[in-house]
Design brief:
The complex is a heterodimer. Chain A is an all-alpha fold. Chain A has a domain at 18-139 and 153-247 and 259-301 and 409-471. Chain A has 15 helices and no strands. Chain A has helices spanning 18-30, 35-61, 76-100, 110-130, 158-191, 195-204, 212-245, 257-283, 292-323, 326-337, 341-353, 361-364, 367-394, 409-432, 438-448. The radius of gyration of chain A is 24 Å and the shape is globular. Chain A starts with 17 loop residues before the first helix and ends in a 25-residue tail after the last helix. The relative contact order of chain A is 0.18. Chain B is α/β, with parallel strands linked by helices. Chain B is built from 30 helices and 43 strands. Chain B has a seven-stranded mixed β-sheet with strand order 5-4-16-15-14-6-7, with helices on both faces. In chain B, helix 4 packs parallel to helix 23 (773-782) and helix 10 runs antiparallel to helix 19. The radius of gyration of chain B is 33 Å and the shape is globular. Chain B starts with 10 loop residues before the first helix and ends in a 9-residue tail after the last strand. Mean pLDDT of chain B is 87; it is low at 39-45 and 1022-1026. The chains are: A mainly alpha, B alpha/beta. Chains A and B meet through helix 5 and helix 10 of A and strand 34, helix 25, helix 26, helix 27 and strand 38 of B.
Chain lengths: 473, 1026
């Protein structure tokens, strides 16, 4: 038996039974599309169209369609890449690290967070390919045996490390996510009435029967995958940060980058999870599963990581001053007071100042405030990457090559286009896949729901009153 | 009747079955598995659909396959190989470039019969192997698609193609019947044979005149000096005082003067002396940027300044003192006067003014100082400018008066480049026969009845006499591309002569220059060398001078101009890139940024900061300029440090309307803004400025102008250098446990071992004058694309080599009393009259290259000879290398620049069949999406090594030279093998080690193979690192 602190708030509210959970989650999958969902999908598809058009322009005419120049060779492309990769981090953190730490509150949000990871990584992966001058040769970055002679990839290059980091991250996340979906797919399969749905979900559930052996194997594999994923939470963004940290450009060449990037990634990831969850719980009426308790817990993570990021920003300035290096000092003074000061101060406002509002319990527990602040953090973290990339490059060593960057319509199109891609994927997921991990929520129902089973006639089971030991492990 | 023999196609036809008869009507006689919709066979429901899909699939696949196939371009080998042409091996021909007053003796590199590069001819003692930017670019003008393909004559109001026989006949007839004077208008001609041809041609007519004018004329200089430009020799001058003469720019002989100028400005420990150069000017010129002491003055003050100098010298050297107005900036003038007096006979005073009074005083100053015979070679006057403004003005009036019967324009385009273009146009209407020898329908040729296009100079024979006694030849390096005819041949034909011009030159040389002996051998040597020097010649006929101006008259004139100088004054100047605009249709010259403003593809209103602040003008605001004679022009403003207060500058050479697609409507024509006086044209005027509210953005290749106190360029004063050469350069040291060390001693890297060669370059910032010749030379050698104004605005110009130009600032970190942030902002502001420093910046070929480590596909690697190599084929275009390059010298192919409609106009060298002939076949034309950069001309290195290998020896120093080093008129760039202890590079590095040699950004420890030498300024100051 687990001890449940009486002070701790329930993670599932509304007196849900096991059957209610199944009903509530499967309802979305089985019912006709919600009109709000359909509108959202239409909007997302429109932006996806913009994405396709912008990508066509880029591929057909060349990178010259973007606003880059000989001084600023990366701008929105890599900003978007790092931003999307960062967003992905929350999913892995929630599903892997919080699983290892036995944080029960993760159960109702991990599915959607993981899906978000997958889709964010898909969006992120667009950029390293699209930003290439000759994307049709992108496979050359892979160490493939070839007949070109002694050609091989350069293992010194952080971009190559990126290739491995991102592909590993994507495949592990995908397997982990899918594995978790199998028991729930089986539930949907069993409830399915139409022949197509039955066949489709039967295929997706890989013949899951729910036998004890299946459960035992499932638990083992998910623990192993959690173990594999845990270092990825730290490694992926560490490696992404090395794209910058190992270079010689002032403002990039910084040892603080790995922890600072990881904290920033989790920060932005949680903000995005919040943005999505607050919408999903409203649209799909899942307020009993994604409760204020969840929101508050995530806000606490945001306040922690946001503060780490803030400290990192200040540390960078201190080190620039302390180093006595002219170029380093100028790079940071230029960030704050140069022509891109507005980007820097947008970043500071959104990332350092707004999350501090979560120190107030009222704000932390306000859905509206949380939603607004989560959007702020998303914007701020985009600006953080923009500031790092563009303001460092645009004024580096030789003043003669200092230049400004301004995006073209295609730059903007690709960025909002990936948002379209992301939301299209997420909306399809939300409609056809169980957005909440049913079987995991059921495991915490006994210990963390508001239902006081021993003192009331109500039970967690709709039909079989005394079956308490079933999920104790 | 003849019996018809019947042949049948097959047995079916012979049998002539009903089935055959039926099928023979259809296209495919045999069965095709498609049935008509109406065909009602037993399987008619099933078969058509399947067959249709089958056929559909097949035709789709076939269409897809067909579209994959690249169009076939036929390469046709020689059937009979020309004797002198070996595929892959260049031939070199000595020739001469003389356009627009810019004289260079050149060598033309041809590959498979097409000229692809022009280089300086080291045998010429005038240009000594140097070549001006315009000379470098001339090879591209050969392939200009705008050139006429054949003669043109006017039918009604239209100019239509004609043939030579017909046009010659018509012209001869018309000229024979001409009613009035026959005039040949040309710019300066320095060819003795051409002048002789013109004389012969003119002799046929009762009244003939050869009118010579120069668009940017030196008429006053010529008139003040007895009919020719004095033979200046800057190499002997210890003190140079220039009043607005841009002598290492486009003034007269850029390369010759630059070579002379730099001769006694190269300092070493053993010879730590250099000339001192004072420049009094209004617009910051290339020469002013190189001056030790530069004083901004208004154009109206120039006379007063020259007169004040004259008076001081007259007091010191004994002469008649003039009564002229005082000059405000007398401190610098006093210093200049003192130094001039101390260096009598070893000094030079010059002026770029076209005011006869000023030039008269300057001549007297040089006489007073005893410079004639020392720094002025009286035996070898300069002939590259001979134009006479008054003759041209008189001719324009004669045309309007209707006394001119026929006019022939040879290298002359007065409708564009004469201030009285409107009067030229109105006059031309009254001229009966108008013939143009222009190579295109230019502004003047558009009014011509006949255009008989001249060859390009690379297709022509000609001779030249740039200075008295110095002859050179040009020879064709390609057979004429079009049905053009050399201008001299046209004149010979019209004058009824049967000789062709080639024989004419030979005869002329046989009579005048050959000293007996075998003429063929003499001629062959002259053609081979391209030059013939030390010849006693008769000199060139001088413009008629009525009477030289007296000193008293000059003083009166100066008093008048000084009084007139109120309000804002305009200086109309020439850029060293475009010059007078004759070759404006050359995209290399349009994209080569102005050495000072770094602007491309436009002219603009150069405005001093003070005036901009006063009038609230921002950079790029379009300003309406109205001159005192009512002419207006609208141009964007460019805030130009060093521009004298209350003056503005506008460059000529832009605003062409009939130059060709590249130059048409680029900028505005500034010629009409010049002042026309009875004595000639003054390239200045009083103006009013008005804001129009519009904005036009100027495409600059550099938008940040100060050095921000960084140790990127280093300079010191000559006084400091003489005191201790070891202290002029600041070397970065890094603190280590073993004390302060040079960064190269603190390394985590293994060093490369160079067993055979280690290529390196030394760039002497003290010798670099910033002319940009190396940039064009590099573009020609390495096929770098031209991207046009919009892409320059996008900061995507593709030149591998750029010249960084930094202005000094008044604010310095050490001395500023402001806060850090404000100090940095103030450091971005150039001084009002800044010191200027140029720094050629190219791939530094780092031994610890940051670009090499970051490429994920190893497309950029280090060679065993120290080169940083770029494998275009391997590049996937992540641009990480370009980001990580501290020098920002890597260039990315943002678009396909070749075979791309978007760049067809500006980059015609990669987009038209004609233009592509200029490409260097030894260098790949890069594809879209790959990075490119300076390769140290690896193709030249490989060639040099191969040649040496064939001769079983090591390459000798000087055999392998990069295009930039070869182009440099001042030998500021030296390239060679650092492994060879006797190479020039090694010697300089040994000599300058610890003194002037430094690496840019040494603290990064990237260990470049390019070393810079600290600039030394002879300005009496001891402040360092301005």
């Amino acid at each position: 038996m687990q001890h449940v602190s009486p002070v701790r708030e329930p993670l599932v509210t509304g007196g849900k039974t096991y059957h209610d959970i199944t009903q509530d989650v499967c309802r979305q999958v089985e019912a006709k599309p919600n009109i709000r969902w359909a509108i959202a999908l239409a909007v997302s598809l429109f932006f996806l169209g913009i994405f396709i058009y912008s990508v066509y322009r880029t591929l057909w005419f060349g990178i010259g369609e973007w606003g880059l120049n000989k001084t600023v060779n990366w701008a929105w492309d890599i900003t978007n890449f790092v931003w999307w990769v960062g967003i992905g981090h929350a999913g892995t953190l929630i599903s892997a690290i919080l699983l290892l730490f036995r944080q029960k509150w993760r159960s109702s949000i991990n599915r959607a967070a993981e899906a978000m990871t997958i889709f964010a990584v898909i969006c992120a992966a667009m950029f390293p390919v699209l930003h290439m001058g000759r994307p049709w040769l992108a496979y050359w970055v892979l160490p493939l045996p070839n007949t070109f002679g002694s050609l091989w990839a350069n293992f010194n290059s952080p971009l190559l490390w990126d290739v491995f980091a991102i592909s590993t991250y994507f495949s592990v996340s995908l397997v982990f996510w899918y594995l978790g979906l199998i028991p729930d797919f089986a539930t949907i399969r069993d409830r399915a009435t139409g022949p197509i749905a039955r066949r489709a979900y039967a295929l997706l559930s890989f013949g899951w029967t729910g036998s004890a052996k299946h459960w035992s194997r499932y638990e083992t594999v998910s623990l192993i995958l959690a173990g594999v994923s845990t270092p990825l939470v730290l490694s992926v963004h560490t490696i992404v940060s090395m794209d910058f940290a190992t270079s010689v450009i002032p403002g990039w060449h910084t040892t603080i980058f790995p922890p600072y990037f990881v904290a920033g990634a989790i920060f932005s990831g949680f903000a995005m999870v919040l943005t999505l969850m607050i919408i999903t719980r409203d649209v799909f009426s899942l307020k009993d599963y994604i409760t204020l308790e969840h929101i508050e817990s995530m806000n606490k993570v945001i306040i922690l990581t946001g503060s780490i990021v803030g400290v990192a920003y200040i540390t960078e300035f201190f080190i620039a001053w302390y180093s006595g290096v002219e170029y380093e000092q100028y790079a940071f003074i230029n960030r704050a007071t140069g022509p891109y000061w507005w980007a820097y101060w947008s970043m500071m406002t959104c990332n350092v100042i707004t999350p501090q509002l979560f120190w107030f319990r009222k704000i932390r527990r306000s859905v509206v405030a949380t939603f607004i602040i989560s959007i702020f953090v998303n914007i701020g973290m985009w600006f953080e990457r923009f500031v790092i990339i563009v303001t460092s490059l645009h004024r580096d060593f030789l003043p003669s090559s200092w230049a400004m960057f301004s995006p073209t319509i295609i730059d903007v199109g690709i960025y909002v286009g990936t948002l379209g891609l992301f939301f299209t994927l997420f909306l399809l997921f939300a409609k056809y896949f169980p957005v909440i991990n049913m079987f995991e929520v059921k495991t915490i129902l006994k210990s963390s729901s508001g239902v006081q089973h021993s003192h009331t006639p109500e039970t967690m089971h709709a039909h079989s009153p005394n079956n308490q030991a079933q999920h104790d492990k | 009747m003849q019996q018809k023999i019947k042949y049948w196609k097959g047995l079916e036809e012979l049998d002539n079955t009903p089935e055959f008869v039926k099928n023979s009507q259809s296209e495919f006689a045999e069965f095709l598995p498609v049935k008509d919709k109406n065909d009602s066979g037993p399987n008619s429901e099933v078969a058509p659909r399947r067959d249709f899909l089958k056929l559909l699939g097949f035709s789709m696949a076939a269409a897809a396959l067909a579209s994959c196939e690249a169009p076939v371009r036929k390469a046709i080998p020689y059937l009979n190989k020309p004797e002198e042409v070996d595929p892959g091996i260049p031939n070199w021909y000595a020739s001469t470039y003389f356009v627009d007053g810019d004289y260079n003796s050149i060598l033309v590199k041809t590959r498979e019969g097409r000229p692809i590069k022009v280089e300086g001819n080291p045998l010429s003692s005038i240009t000594r192997g140097g070549l001006s930017p315009r000379g470098q670019a001339t090879v591209l003008s050969l392939y200009d698609t705008t050139r006429l393909k054949g003669p043109v004559s006017k039918k009604g109001n239209k100019q239509v193609e004609a043939n030579w026989e017909q046009i010659d006949q018509e012209i001869s007839t018309k000229l024979a019947q001409v009613n009035g004077k026959v005039v040949l208008v040309s710019t300066t001609i320095i060819s003795p044979s051409t002048k002789s041809v013109i004389r012969e041609f003119g002799a046929k007519y009762p009244s003939f005149e050869h009118v010579v004018y120069d668009p940017y004329s030196a008429s006053a200089l010529i008139k003040a000096n007895g009919g020719a430009v004095p033979g200046y020799d800057f190499s002997k001058a210890k003190t140079i005082v220039s009043f607005g003469a841009d002598f290492i720019g486009p003034w007269l002989n850029q390369v010759e003067f630059a070579k002379q100028y730099i001769t006694n400005r190269k300092v070493t420990k053993d010879n730590p002396n250099m000339s001192r150069h004072y420049q009094f000017e209004s617009t910051l010129s290339l020469t002013g940027a190189n001056a030790d002491i530069r004083v901004p003055i208004k154009p109206s003050e120039e006379g007063a300044a020259v007169a004040a100098l004259y008076n001081r010298l007259a007091q010191g050297a004994g002469g008649q003192v003039l009564n002229t107005p005082a000059f405000a900036q007398s401190k610098q003038l006093d210093a200049a006067a003192q130094e001039l007096l101390a260096n009598r006979g070893a000094s030079l005073v010059i002026s770029g003014s076209n005011d006869l009074a000023v030039q008269t005083l300057v001549r007297e100053i040089n006489r007073l100082l005893g410079n004639e015979g020392t720094t002025i070679n009286t035996a070898a006057p300069i002939y590259t400018k001979q134009g006479d403004d008054t003759q041209m003005l008189r001719f324009i009036n004669e045309m309007n008066a209707g006394t001119v019967g026929a006019v022939i324009f040879y290298n002359a385009n007065p409708v564009y480049n004469h201030p009285q273009a409107d009067k030229v146009v109105s006059g031309l209407k009254k001229v009966g026969v108008k013939i143009s020898l222009a190579d295109r329908i230019d502004e003047t040729a558009a009014f011509a009845d006949y255009i008989t296009p001249d060859h390009h100079h690379l297709e022509s024979w000609n001779d030249f006499e740039p200075r008295r006694g110095f002859l050179s030849l040009s020879q064709p390096t390609i057979s004429p591309l079009f049905k053009t005819r050399q201008a001299q041949d046209s004149l010979l034909v019209w004058s009824g002569s049967r000789t062709n011009y080639y024989d004419y030159i030979r005869n002329n040389w046989r009579t005048n220059y050959a000293k007996g002996g075998n003429f063929d051998a003499f001629w062959d040597k002259a053609v081979h060398d391209g030059v013939l020097e030390g010849v006693a010649t008769a000199g060139q006929s001088a413009p008629a001078i009525t009477a030289p101006m007296t000193m008293a008259a000059a003083a009166v004139a100066i008093n008048q101009t000084a009084r007139a100088g109120k309000g804002i004054e305009l200086v109309v100047y020439q850029k060293s890139t475009i010059g007078s605009g004759i070759e404006a249709n050359n995209p290399w010259l349009q994209e080569l940024s102005d050495p000072i403003s770094r602007a491309t593809w436009d002219n603009y209103l150069a405005l001093p900061v003070s005036l901009a602040k006063e009038m609230g003008i921002q950079q790029n605001d379009v300003i309406k300029v109205t001159t005192s004679n009512g002419k207006t022009i609208e141009l964007p403003a460019l805030i130009q440090p060093g521009q004298a207060r209350n003056t503005v500058g506008i460059a000529v050479g832009y605003g062409r309307t009939h130059a060709g697609l590249v130059a048409n409507n680029v900028g505005q024509n500034a010629y009409p803004l010049a002042t026309v006086t009875a004595n000639g044209i003054l390239f200045q005027n009083g103006v009013k400025l008005e804001k129009t509210g519009a904005e036009k953005i100027i495409a600059q290749t550099q938008t940040h102008h100060t050095i921000m106190d960084r140790l990127v360029v280093q300079e010191a004063s000559l006084a400091d250098y003489q005191k201790n050469p070891k202290e002029v350069t600041e070397y970065i040291k890094i603190s280590t446990p073993n004390g302060k060390q040079s960064p190269s001693k603190v390394s985590l890297w293994y060093d490369y071992e160079y067993k055979n060669h280690h290529w390196g370059m030394v760039i002497d910032l003290n010798s670099c004058i910033g002319c940009g010749s190396c940039v064009v030379g590099c573009a020609a050698e390495n096929n770098t694309p031209i991207v046009g104004k919009q892409e320059v605005l996008n900061r995507r110009e593709m030149f591998w080599l750029r010249i960084d130009r930094y202005y000094s600032s008044d604010t310095h970190k050490e001395t500023s009393d402001k806060g850090v942030i404000e100090t940095y902002h103030l450091m971005e502001e150039p001084s009002e009259n800044p010191q200027v420093i140029f720094q050629p910046m190219l791939c530094q070929h780092c031994n610890h290259a940051p670009c090499e480590t970051v490429c994920p596909v190893l497309a950029t690697t280090h060679s065993s000879e120290g080169l940083n190599q770029m494998a275009y084929n391997r590049c996937v275009g992540t641009r990480y290398c370009a980001n990580n390059c501290p020098y920002k010298v890597r260039r990315f192919n943002w678009f396909a620049y070749s075979d791309n409609e978007k760049f067809a106009t500006q980059n015609f060298q990669m987009n038209t069949d004609l233009g592509r002939m200029v490409l260097n076949p030894d260098v790949t034309v890069r594809a879209r999406g790959v990075i490119e950069k300076c390769s140290f001309c690896v193709q030249r290195i490989q060639l040099g090594k191969l040649e040496a290998k064939k001769a079983k020896r090591r390459p000798q120093d000087g055999e392998i030279v990069t295009a930039c080093a070869q182009s440099c008129p001042t030998n500021a760039i030296v390239f060679g093998d650092m492994k060879d202890p006797n190479s020039q590079v090694s010697q300089i590095l040994r000599r300058e080690d610890g003194e002037r040699a430094f690496h840019v950004l040494e603290e990064l420890n990237v260990q470049p193979n390019v070393t810079y030498l600290t600039k030394i300024r002879n300005n009496n100051q001891t402040t360092k690192n301005a």
